[in-house]
Specification:
FAD/NAD(P)-binding domain, binds 3-acetylpyridine adenine dinucleotide, 20 strands, 17 helices, alpha/beta, 8-stranded mixed sheet
């Protein structure tokens, strides 16, 4: 099988890649591990799953008709609604026809002589493709920690990112949930409503902000649709890919009263943008401390038992250095008699027993265990495949000390492989839909340029890549982010190199950098013409 472009993944990024690249007249072949479209929204079906970026922003911008015709029902869409939306997009633009579903790409090997990739999938398919686009997601390789005894457990167990499609009934059952990141924090209140008793096993407390979700009305929908164009423009120029204006002054330049009023306004609005109340909030501990103190006062007021509140307040000194969570009624859930917060920091889990779980502090009888234990983020899905570039050089070796890319788009030694929202791009720090659209548009323009200029390959120049990695690291080091043990740094995966993976310089700035690179003739990339031996048939 041959294709001009092979696209791996059929989430937001992969679907748009199908649409955009097909429009260029290229033959596109797609592979997707899930049985249908949706990517992260196909897999993450746990109770309470919803997006923490407003639905009107977390949606495609490439078609004005699409964004005008789709009516979001709530400010923050639920997983089922986002999946319905993606199915609608796939139907509307006929995007399924070139995708093999339920099929995982296992390897991609570059043939230097033929200047193409040979890609293999787990159904036995072998495809030769000139270009590969890896739209494999930043949070797609789910992780179950290596806790002894799981195979002996006689109850049911689930991972939030591999949730059964038919749903799970917890009524009358004793449930243990391990993990208190975004997934655990969203699932906890809903599982608590059903379970006979819920044990929340917490190793690290997280900062969560009430989401401030509300239904949209015809009026709010008409209002946002009328200003969509301005909203999208503001999002593209912003730091995080959605319209947001921080307070015009720095944290300590305003009085305590004004500061608290600003936090209160953001708190009332709800959501992750609390982290960006002041422009310097993530830059220094002094600027972060008042926001953190405000958060703590709010949370303590929600939790009845002071000892439980003590546990729910993170030990990380700064708020927002780990991905901030958003919730609906997470903290009040711990006031219920049928919910117990178990501190597994001071008394770690020793093993899963046939009938529950044992920590160094005690034994818990459980019917069900829910792993909300996260992902091998940003690199897990890519390194899960055997990708070999020039001279058989493997991506796993190239990234052994942490991911190295130029602009997050390409890696030196791997010609014609594009990564969508990869490490070294704003990625998870931005609105992923707009970030994916930006990358796919950039890739499409690049392929047109290659064709027009008679070039067959493009790859990152090693020196430009080194400089980009240095620049990204320096930017991160000037913030509080690297101080936390977060998945941004790979800290949740034993043995993973501790490198801050996303580009933290801001989405708008990054877009300008990418445009400048193109304006300067793809500066930092090496373009090579079609090899002589390919032009003249033997
Ligand atoms: O995963 P996480 P997540 N023993 O890695 C714990 C996006 N997302 O799926 O912190 C015991 O954040 C771990 O403890 P610790 C969003 O970007 C978005 O919740 O390592 N515990 C932690 O508490 C988010 O950041 C949305 O000490 C163990 C938890 O498991 C990202 O996905 C919703 C353990 C993992 O938290 C990941 O979120 C959901 C062990 N061995 C997800 N191993 C929204 O849009 C891990 N843990 C709202």
């Amino acid at each position: 099988m041959n294709a001009d472009v092979l696209v791996v993944g059929a989430g937001f990024a992969g679907l748009y890649a199908q649409h955009k690249l097909r429009e260029l007249g290229l033959s596109v072949r797609g592979y997707e591990a899930g049985a249908d479209v949706g990517g992260t929204w196909y897999w993450n079906r746990y109770p309470g799953a919803r997006c923490d970026v407003e639905s009107i922003d977390y949606s495609y911008s490439f078609s004005d008709e699409l964004q005008k015709e789709w009516d979001w029902s709530e400010r923050y869409a639920t997983q089922p609604e986002i999946l319905r939306y993606l199915n609608h997009v796939a139907d509307r633009f006929d995007l399924r026809r070139d995708i093999s579903f339920g099929t995982r790409v296992t390897s991609a090997v570059y043939d230097d002589d033929a200047q193409h990739w040979e890609v293999r999938a787990d159904n036995g398919d072998v495809v030769t493709a000139t270009y590969c686009v890896f739209a494999t997601g930043s949070l797609s390789a789910s992780r179950i920690p290596d806790i002894p005894g799981l195979s002996e457990f006689t109850g049911r167990w689930f991972h939030t990112a591999r949730w059964p499609h038919e749903g799970v009934e917890f009524t009358g059952r004793r449930v243990g949930i391990i993990g208190t990141g975004s997934s655990g924090i969203q699932a906890t209140p809903l599982i608590a409503e059903q379970a006979a008793h819920l044990y929340v096993f917490q190793r690290s407390a997280n900062y969560s902000i009430p989401a401030g979700n509300h239904p949209h009305t015809d009026e709010t929908r008409a209002a946002y649709k009328a200003t969509y164009e301005q909203r999208r423009r503001a999002s593209r120029e912003s730091g995080g890919g959605s319209p947001h204006e921080a307070h015009p002054r720095r944290t300590l330049e305003v009085s305590e009263e004004e500061r608290n009023a600003a936090y209160e306004r953001r708190w009332e609005l709800g959501g992750v943008l609390f982290s960006k109340t002041f422009p310097d909030q993530m830059a220094t501990e002094e600027a972060n401390a008042p926001a953190r103190a405000f958060w703590e006062r709010k949370i303590r007021a929600l939790v009845t038992e002071p000892a439980v509140a003590d546990l729910l307040v993170p030990t990380d000194p700064a708020i927002g250095t780990k991905r901030i969570c958003t919730d609906s009624d997470y903290y009040p859930t711990f006031n219920r008699d049928d919910v117990t917060l178990v501190d597994i920091r001071s008394a770690p889990i020793e093993e899963i027993t046939p009938t529950g779980l044992r920590t160094t502090g005690g034994e818990y009888e459980l019917d069900d265990i829910v792993f909300a234990t996260g992902f091998d983020a940003m690199t897990g899905a890519l390194l899960g495949m055997d990708i070999r570039g020039r001279g058989g050089w493997s991506l796993r070796d190239a990234w052994a000390a942490g991911p190295r890319t130029y602009l997050g788009l390409m890696t030196a030694g791997f010609p014609n492989i594009f990564i969508v929202t990869g490490p070294g791009s704003p990625s998870v720090l931005a609105n992923m839909v707009l970030a994916a659209e930006h990358h796919i548009d950039w890739i499409a323009d690049c392929l047109v340029h290659l064709a027009r200029t008679g070039n067959a390959t493009i790859e990152a120049d090693a020196q430009a890549q080194d400089a980009w990695v240095r620049r990204s690291n320096e930017l991160a080091e000037n913030t509080l982010f690297p101080k936390a043990n977060s998945w941004y740094l790979g800290a949740n995966v034993p043995g993973k190199p501790g490198v801050f993976m996303p580009f933290i310089g801001g989405f708008g700035t990054y877009r300008t950098i990418c445009a400048d690179v193109v304006a300067k003739g793809y500066e930092g990339f090496v373009l090579t013409p079609l090899a002589e031996r390919r032009r003249t048939p033997a």
